Each structure stands twice: as C-alpha cells, then as structure tokens.
User: Which sequence fits this backbone?
C-alpha cells in the first residue's frame, strides 16, 4: 500500500542523503504524477520509479576522462580539504599502472607541506613531480610541469591546486589564470575535475557553480563515499549544471578510486536508515 | 534558490495582513517555508522537526503588535530558537590545576584539524600560555611536515615521531612536561565514524592523553551526515565542544547547529579564513542569522528591535509631555541611541553604507554618553525621579561614584530641568507635537544628539538607519534592496 507514510519515508531518505529540499520535491512530485497515471500501487514499484527518475537526471553522460593533448592536462580544483591531492595520487597510480607516463604538478603552493604530500604519492605511483617554492605562482608551476612533460614525451600531467573557498573572488581569479596558463604551452587541458566531498551539504551546488564559472569544470570527483554520507548533492549538480560525476573515492589506498556507477549510487541513496 | 526567509514570507504576509493574532493555519504556512529554509541550510532533518515544534508552540496565538508584522514576529521567534540551541551552553576554556592542559582534536578527513591545531596554539599563545603541538596524524602523507611548518610560523614546538599514534601521544605528553609547556594540543588523523579500527585507535589516544578538552572539528559545509558522525565521536571520546571551520564561505552551517542540538555540546571556536589568525571564539547569534539566509534576516530583526525601542520611546514621550519625565527616561533614550551605535558597526560592513554610518557615529558621541550614563547610574532611584533633592553632599557622592566632576552633575541636572520644563510647555500644545512628528518623517531619519541632549525618537521610524528602506509597520519585510553578502563578519 502506498500512503502518506510511504511518501514521507522516501522524501526523508532523499533529504538525509543531502539531495536537498528542492530537488527532492521535484523528484517526489514527478513520481507521484507517474504513480497516478501508471497505476503503480506498491511500495517497491514506487521506489523503482523514484530510482528511475534520479537515473534519468543523472543521464547517460560521458564519464570517461578525455585525452588528446601532447601532453593531456587534467586539472584538479575544489574547496579546502575535499581530497584533491589524494585523488591525484590515486589517479596517478592508476594511470601509471595502465602504462601512461605521468607528471604531477604540485600547484598547491599555499598549504604547508602540500607538495611533500604529493611527493609521497609520486613515489608510490612512479610519477615524476614538478614543484615550486612555497608561495610560488601556481600558474607557473603548472606551466613548468607541462613543459617538463612535453620535453620528455609524457602522456599526462595531473595538476594540483590549492583548496579555495569559492566565495573568495581573488582566489577564483587566480584559479581561472592557472587554467588559462596550463593550456598556453605544449599541452592541452582536456579535463578540469571538481573534487567534492560526499559529506558536503547544499553548499555543494554553489561550489560547483562558482568553480564551473571560473575554471570550466568538465566533471566531478566525489570523494569519501566509503563513509556514511551519500553525496546526494551531486544529483542537483548534474541536474542543474549538467556536470557529470566521473570518479568516486572510496578509501585511502591507491586503488580506492573507481568509476562512477549511477545505479550503485542511486541504490546507496536509499540505504540511509530512515527514522520511523 | 537560496532566497532569504523574508522573501519566502511575502506571499503569506499578504494573506495574514491585518489579523490581530496568528491562527494555527497561518502558522503552518510560515512553518513550511521555515522547514525548507532550514533544510537548505543543512540543518538535520530530525532537528528541523524539533525546531518546528518549538516554533509552532510559540507562534500560534502570538499577538500581532503594532510595531511588528506577522512575518517579523515569526522570524524573531525562529531566530530566538536557533540562538537558544547555539547559545544554550557556552564553552569556557579551563586550565588544568597541574599543567599541561591537554586538548585533543578529532574529526573526518579534510575537516581542517591540522590547521585548527595551529590556530588553536596561536590562540592559546595570545592568552599568555605556552602551547606545544603533537602531530599524531601518521596516515596522511606529510601531515606532520604541515604541522611543523605551521608550528614554525607561530613559534610553537611540534612533537612527533614515526612510531604509532598512541606512542606519539604518550611521548608527546612526556616531552611537554620536560619542556614545561602548559598547553598541549594533539592533532590526529582524519577518520570516518564507521571505521571501527580507527575509532578504537583515537579512543586509545584519548585514554593515553586523558585530555581536558576534546574538540570535534567540523566543516561548515557538511550536510546531513554531520549528526551521525558527531554522535559516533561523542560516544567514543566524550566531546566537550566543536570547532567549526571554513565559515568564510557561504555555507549556512546548519550542520553545526544540528550537532549542538543533538549532542548537547557547544561550538567553542569558529575558523573564518586561511591565515592562522582567522580564528575566534564562537558567536551564536551570528550563526543563527546566517542559517536563516544571509543578512536580510538580521536586518529584519534589527529593524524589529528598533521598533521595540520606538514603543519604549513613545511611552517616555508621553511621560515627558505630562511633565513626569524622569532621569530614568532620559537614560533610556541614551541607551536606545547607544544600541544604534552597535548597529552602526554592523551596517558599516555593508558596501556603500560606511560613509552614512560614519555620520551616525559622529552624532552619537560614545564617550559623552558613557559619562552621562555613569552619572545617572550613580544616583539613587529617588534622585533620578526628582533631581531637585540633589544637594551638595549628594553631588559629591555622585561625582565620586561616577568618576566625574561636580560641575558635570550640575550641568546635567540643569539641562534635564530645562528639558522637562520645555516638554511640559509643549505638552500643553498637543497638536504642535504631532505636526513636528510628520515633518520629521518627511525629512528623513536618524537620531541626532544635540547640545541639549538626544532628539526625541520618531515614533513611526524608530531609530532607523538612513538608506535602509522602510521595514516598519505593515509594509511587509521588503529589505529595500539591501542584501548583505554572505560574509562572516569578524571582530
């Protein structure tokens, strides 16, 4: 039997997964309409329709990581503490394992010891790393890394940037400059990946909007999905801004970075314990 | 999409305008908008439920007074309830009778523990303490190097070794004793609340350190998961307070409020920027306003409070005209003006408003008000009611009590007598006062202190700030185009 409690339960599940009130209302509204027209009258059927609605919004987006430059440059951006450096480490390990030659650009010249952190990952994954002094211009560090990679015929540059809160206009301008400078030399920026922490709430949509405006974001990396948070804000990010999730972080080991599987993601949204 | 609560209320306000009392249906309409606003602000679903219940209890049947429209009444109730959750218990840093005082930091990955450790050390240093940092995050590559770099910057020693986190904590504590440091702050690796092994490890660190304060470091941008995480850390460690980080962005911070409500522990510090001095003790009222939607709500509430002040002023004016104006009333008016002073400092943060606010500050000479307030406060109630009883020996006592000169007291009493006499004469010509009131309304607003004392407060406008737009009466909460940016005012 589908009754008010069913709808309340589904609504609460979405809200607790950080899907957010407006997206939740739109999703539930759409399913209510379909339940009426399609004559669905059991809870499992309703849940199936709801999952379909969400999958529709996540769409059949291209989730591959584009290459094509000499070298290709993948730039990582996001607010502080979301896991940019760790993501680069894991991805470098994966790409090097797949036979690509990888260069890390230690473009976070602000956070103390950020380059040291990336250096540990470079050693783990067999990538080379180009770094500047602390406080150096991040654009020139990335540019140097690209030149270094081009000179050696490397395939891929993974460029780190300092975490920044998206409301800081000067830091967002700096990021836009890094993005421009990165593509000025021999290489081509083929991906700009926004790293979002799965624990992020409704602010995630504002982050995505600002970073997309500043750096032309091509995809999302959703990190820390191995915890109890579900990362539901990316539904709104894809729905509103059309930016697909491309990678998912599920742990601290080098192998804990996987492709985004929409069906798994949607199933997990409803695994939150819904209070009675 | 992140519209402020007041603009959400506009549609409802049109319907309830003119009602003397809020009925249950009116309140439900407000509540459904408040629910969405709280969820947009990342307040936990369960906490939204309990907050709405409390707000409902207070709002149903609330009388709609002359000064406040129904929307303002509801917003005021909501803000008070949020502030009550946030300010219910405040954190007071205590120091161990036998140093060192030990502080343990814990939290999820990326919440900002290492930076917070350094900021906290800097804060303790500013309190005159001699802190030491322990780097017990041996998981994240270069976390200890990060802490060492930050420690160097603030000239605070950092202890770590490549053993295991529990040993590092134990040795660090011994090192602090050897160095005679009186505060020890221990940074730990980020961990997920559902990671049993790592949660057991941090519990063991806590057992070794026996910390006096355990802080959970929480990212202001966190969503619904914050409560479950905090409960898990609280169960293992027994939290004393929260440190909320990244409040310099535009996240509303509802998660932090939710933790406070569910775990019952206060927010001790707010981290508001990337440099080490962007760190301050927490102000509950600021976060409450922020959760409800940027500055316009704060403005609305300030306006509402100005209207309250206007009602008080009106009562004082009535006594004035009857010739029973007392020094207490006089002081009340001064205090109303003083409140404006603090408002002016807030408004000064609004781009384009600073110059207008400066005029106001010049008008309200703080030091002069201080002295007058001191004098009146040093009087007995009888003297305030009837200053005529103040003789030479009373004058000397008041001067000694307020740290002023006898001459100043003479001046004040003389001014007050003249004012009262003038008021009494004016009271006899009632209509004149009303005409004056209308003229003032046309000319503009803003209290002015003249040589003779504060100008009477305009009943309609209250102590409004120039250029703020009209929020009073039944005009609805249109903020007059004023929208505070989503900044976190510091200081």
Assistant:
């Amino acid at each position: 039997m589908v009754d008010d409690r069913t709808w309340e339960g589904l609504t609460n599940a979405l809200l607790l997964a950080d899907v957010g009130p407006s997206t939740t209302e739109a999703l539930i509204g759409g399913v209510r309409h379909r339940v009426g027209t399609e004559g669905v009258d059991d809870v499992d059927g309703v849940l199936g329709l709801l999952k379909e609605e969400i999958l529709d919004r996540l769409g059949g987006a291209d989730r591959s990581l584009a290459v094509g430059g000499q070298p290709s440059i993948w730039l990582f951006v996001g607010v502080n503490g979301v896991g940019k450096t760790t993501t680069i480490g894991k991805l470098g390990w994966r790409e090097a394992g797949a036979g690509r030659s990888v260069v890390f650009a230690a473009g976070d010249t602000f956070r103390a010891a950020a380059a040291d952190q990336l250096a540990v990952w470079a050693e783990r994954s067999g990538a080379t790393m180009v770094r500047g002094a602390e406080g150096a211009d991040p654009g020139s560090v990335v540019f140097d890394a690209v030149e270094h990679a081009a000179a050696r015929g490397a395939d891929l540059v993974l460029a780190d940037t300092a975490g920044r809160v998206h409301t800081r206009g000067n830091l967002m301008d700096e990021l836009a400059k890094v993005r421009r400078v990165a593509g000025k030399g021999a290489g081509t920026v083929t991906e700009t990946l926004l790293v979002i922490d799965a624990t992020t709430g409704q602010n995630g949509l504002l982050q995505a909007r600002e970073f997309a405006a500043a750096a032309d974001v091509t995809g999302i990396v959703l990190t820390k999905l191995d915890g109890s948070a579900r990362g539901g804000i990316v539904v709104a990010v894809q729905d509103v801004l059309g930016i697909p999730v491309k990678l998912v972080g599920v742990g601290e080991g080098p192998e804990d970075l996987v492709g985004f599987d929409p069906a798994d993601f949607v199933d997990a949204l409803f695994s939150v314990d819904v209070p009675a | 999409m992140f519209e402020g609560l007041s603009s959400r209320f506009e549609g409802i306000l049109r319907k309830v305008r003119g009602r003397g009392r809020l009925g249950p249906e009116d309140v439900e309409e407000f509540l459904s908008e408040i629910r969405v606003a709280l969820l947009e602000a990342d307040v936990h679903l369960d906490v939204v439920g309990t907050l709405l219940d409390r707000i409902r209890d207070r709002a149903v049947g609330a009388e709609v007074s002359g000064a406040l429209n129904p929307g303002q009444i509801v917003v005021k109730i909501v803000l008070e309830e949020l502030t009550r959750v946030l300010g219910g218990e405040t954190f007071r840093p205590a120091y161990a009778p036998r140093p060192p005082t030990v502080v343990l930091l814990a939290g999820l990955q990326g919440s900002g523990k290492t930076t917070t450790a350094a900021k906290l050390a800097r804060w303790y240093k500013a309190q005159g303490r001699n802190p030491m940092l322990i780097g017990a995050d041996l998981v994240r590559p270069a976390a200890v190097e990060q802490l060492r770099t930050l420690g160097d910057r603030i000239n605070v020693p950092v202890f770590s070794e490549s053993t295991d986190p529990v040993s590092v904590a134990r040795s660090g504590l011994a090192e602090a004793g050897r160095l005679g440091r009186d505060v020890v702050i221990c940074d730990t690796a980020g961990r997920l609340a559902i990671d049993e092994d790592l949660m057991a490890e941090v519990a063991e660190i806590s057992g070794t350190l026996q910390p006096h304060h355990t802080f959970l470091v929480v990212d202001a941008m966190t969503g619904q998961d914050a409560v479950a995480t905090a409960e898990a850390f609280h169960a293992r460690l027994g939290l004393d307070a929260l440190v909320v980080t990244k409040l310099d962005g535009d996240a509303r911070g509802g998660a932090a409020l939710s933790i406070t409500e569910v775990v019952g522990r206060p927010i001790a510090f707010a981290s508001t920027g990337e440099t080490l001095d962007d760190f301050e003790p927490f102000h509950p009222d600021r976060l409450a306003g922020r959760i409800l939607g940027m500055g316009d709500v704060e403005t609305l509430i300030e306006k509402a409070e100005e209207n309250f002040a206007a009602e008080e002023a009106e009562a004082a004016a009535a006594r004035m005209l009857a010739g029973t104006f007392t020094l207490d009333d006089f002081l009340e008016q001064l205090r109303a003006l003083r409140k404006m002073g603090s408002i002016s400092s807030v408004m000064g943060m609004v781009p384009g408003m600073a110059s207008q606010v400066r005029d106001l500050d010049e008008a309200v000479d703080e030091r002069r008000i201080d002295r007058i307030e001191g004098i009146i406060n040093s009087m007995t109630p009888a003297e305030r009611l009837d200053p005529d009883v103040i003789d030479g020996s009373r004058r000397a006592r008041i001067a000694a009590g307020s740290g002023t000169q006898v001459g100043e007291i003479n001046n004040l009493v003389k001014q007050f007598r003249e004012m009262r006499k003038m008021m009494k004469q004016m009271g006899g010509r009632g209509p004149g006062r009303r005409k004056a009131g209308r003229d003032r309304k046309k000319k503009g607003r803003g209290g002015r202190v003249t040589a003779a004392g504060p100008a009477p407060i305009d009943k309609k406008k209250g102590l409004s700030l120039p250029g703020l737009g009209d929020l009073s009466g039944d005009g609805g909460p249109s903020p007059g185009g004023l929208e505070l940016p989503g900044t976190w005012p510091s200081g």
Notes: DSSP finds ten helices and eight strands in chain A. Strands of chain A lie at 72-77, 102-106, 128-131, 156-159, 188-197, 219-223, 245-249, 257-259. The radius of gyration of chain A is 20 Å. Chain A has two domains: 4-58, 72-259.
